[in-house]
Amino acid sequence: MLILPLHKPLTLATWPWMTTLLLLANVIVFFGAQSGDTRAMGQAQRYYLDSGLAEQEMPAYRQYLLDSGRGDEVQALDDEDEDAQWGQLATAAVNDLGFRARLAQHAPGEDEDAQARWRPLRAEFDRRLDAIFTLRHMQRGSEWSPHRMLTAAFLHADPMHLIGNMLFLVALGLLLEGAIGPGWLLGVYVVGAYGSAAASVLWRWGEYGGGLGASGAIAAMMGAFCAVWGRQPVRFFYWFWVVFNYVRAPAILLFPLWLGWEVFNLLSQDDARVAFEAHAGGLVTGALMGALLVWTKQTRPAFLLDTPAVVVDDRWARAQRHLGRMENTEAESLLAELAAEQPQSFDVALARCRLARNAGQTQFLRERALTLLRLPATNAAQVQAQWGLAQTLPGDGVALPADVRSVLASQWIALGHLQEAERLLSLEGEGGPRDAQAQLWLKLALAHGARQSGDQQRLLAHLLQAFPDQPQATKARFLLDNL
Question: Peptidase S54 rhomboid domain spans which residues (predicted)?
């Protein structure tokens, strides 16, 4: 489910400067400080396995799980293949703080020599981990760290994670920063980062792992937006499965939808590797903060009341839906409006042609077909659409005028669609003045010659045979003699 408020246009007057700074901070951290972390992490884990450190620590890890009352995880570990076992151990060696604390207290190994061999290997591994920016600043499971709870809100796992969060940051920041100001917007982001992180730590206490991303802080912005805008109707876009549209509704109604969706996913997708509990915690934190700002009159009524809705022309999308449902009358009404406003729109003209054919409206098909065929094609898809229409018109009882045929052939030759142009010139029917036809065949032959195509000789021979009395035949004979 996607719900995205799109209520005000982004202009210089409404530009959310603090939101922009937050966006830049996230982007700079990801493409700057985090840029080498994936490679460094891979190298560290490879060192862990190749150095023999993993082999030394595996018995200690199994014992740690048993002592922690996690015997079921030992059984699950035994059920995995060898590569999966080493992979799980390598992950635990990085993220399981309890296991790392156990190693710090009790060096693995049956004797002093084994422990002495272990210590420099582990020290080197820890050194490699400490050099990874993301690991130094991400939130860690079962740990209260004010520093990490904040810095994790500026980290991201991959580009798509960053892009998705920044899309919501900009959409919400535009509406929330204008309503409460840049200072309070920053406050919501920071407090939301702590609130969402606290919810995640509490919900997953006892689990090892880590969390990162701006989504918790942005969820707080979502909650604050709902509280600050309250009963004010706002325009938003929603997308649920295959259903999508723009609607207007009071902002406060979005809060139970957002929160309910996160709680539903939290309870039904525990293994999704998404911190739904952090999103829910951020929403609640932001809503409480937004309510406090409203109560203390920290909002900007002028911005909230001056709410011109973003005008979105959805007539084309609605016309497509009507066409799909065979609702021809409704589709034609919308397409006629669009055709009047956009007489050069190829897509609109093509849709009106198809509608007339599907509805059996032969009286309108000729007029609309000629309108489409007189429009200049700009790409291969449009040429194919015109060619498909031109060759089927006779079957619909519609003759293709000679002037239209000539213009189409000339345009297609210029675009390099030579096969379609030849097929068009070869169609039965009135081809127009013979000199004009001969000129088009010569132009087609010359276009093939420019491509060094073997079809040039064939086309010149056809020109000589079909139009021997035209001046172009003389040129064709000269070209043939010199090929």
Answer: 145-294
